[in-house]
Design goal:
The chain is of the alpha+beta class. Helices cover 51% and strands 14% of the residues. A two-stranded antiparallel ribbon has the order 1-2. Helix 1 packs antiparallel against helix 2, helix 1 packs parallel to helix 4 and helix 3 packs across helix 4. The longest helix is centred in the middle third of the chain and has 37 residues. It is flat and about 100 Å long.
Length: 152
Amino acid sequence: MVKRRKYSPERVEVMCDVLTQTGSDKLAYEAAGISADCFYRWLSEIPEFHEQIQAAREEFFNKGKQVVFDRITTAEAYIDRVIQGKEFQVKRFTETTTLANGQQVLKERIEEVQLKPNYWMLERVLGKTADSSTPDYAIEINLAEPEVNEDE
């Protein structure tokens, strides 16, 4: 049977908060000031503790999935903009010119350069090729043969 001297809602709340943020059992029980043995014993013997810890673990996992999904979405949008020619890199150039009187003038020039899709970007959109020299896709152009008029 569990001795509930150390067990308290405050400790459980601390552990759930840490677990939700880090996903680490160890950091959670250390933050609450209990041992690993105590933590895992409570998990097996106190059903409401088990439920709360499981909910915190699921919340951490779901946050992680959302972060990964957001990064993938952002990356795909960037690749689409590059391939469509809508993504530019800004380049800044500074030039120092010396005038006849010895005074130096600093000029700044800004250029926007359209980004070209890299090979990996095209692979991402078109699919990887089995052999880089042989693509997965092929373009076939069939031209119609001109009609031959036998009357001529």
